[in-house]
Amino acid sequence: MVTVTLMQPANWEIVQSIYLEGIETGDATFQQDVPDWDAWNRDHLTHSRLVALIIDQIVGWAALSPVSKRQVYAGVAEVSVYVSEKYRGQKVGNTLLEHLIKHSETNNIWTLQSSIFRENKASIYIHECNGFRFVGYREKIGQMNGIWRDTLLFERRSRTVGNG
Fold first, then answer.
1. In this predicted model, what pLDDT tens digit does every residue of 94-112 receive, in sequence order?
2. Cα–Cα distance between 72 and 68 in angstroms, integer?
3. Where are the domains of the chain?
4. What is the dotted CATH code of the domain comprising 2-113?
5. Sign of torsion, CA 54 124 126 164?
6. Tell me: the pLDDT tens digits for 122-160?
7. I need a labelling partner for 136 at 20 to 30 A (CA). Which of 11, 13, 14, 25 fits?
8. Mean of the per-residue pLDDT values for the chain?
9. Residue 43 CB: number of other CB atoms within 10 A?
10. What CA–CA distance (Å, rounded) separates 107 from 152?
11. Cα dist from 111 to 62, 104, 160, whole Å
């Protein structure tokens, strides 16, 4: 059974190793190296940082990044969800995303967005299952190892936050 709790700085070593597993797939992120704690901490919102546990072992994590420093976009965040290679296909990512949505709304986030490589079928699936809609694609948005990559853009608008 998967449980979800708030990420603590002491979890960073395990979170970092799961992040590296995602990077190594080549289909999770344009990121080539795992940042250190200070850089990661600076780039992510201080709320809605979660870890998934199975029998007290961290098997995945999720967090939000601001899409802009401009105040008008304060309620818009980008989603990151990573699952340990050993636990993929066991609904860990889906459980994390469900909890991340709840935490985001508690923290006044009205729009979540995700930029996903076309090849990352599992990520596309869990986003669609959690109410994200396909907005469009970005053709050749960035290069990875000399190869141009496309990303698909998904977003989820809260039904409870920012509806004024």
1. 999 999 999 999 999 999 9
2. 9
3. 2-113
4. 3.40.630.30
5. positive
6. 999 999 999 999 999 999 989 888 989 999 999 999 999
7. 25
8. 93
9. 12
10. 26
11. 16, 9, 11
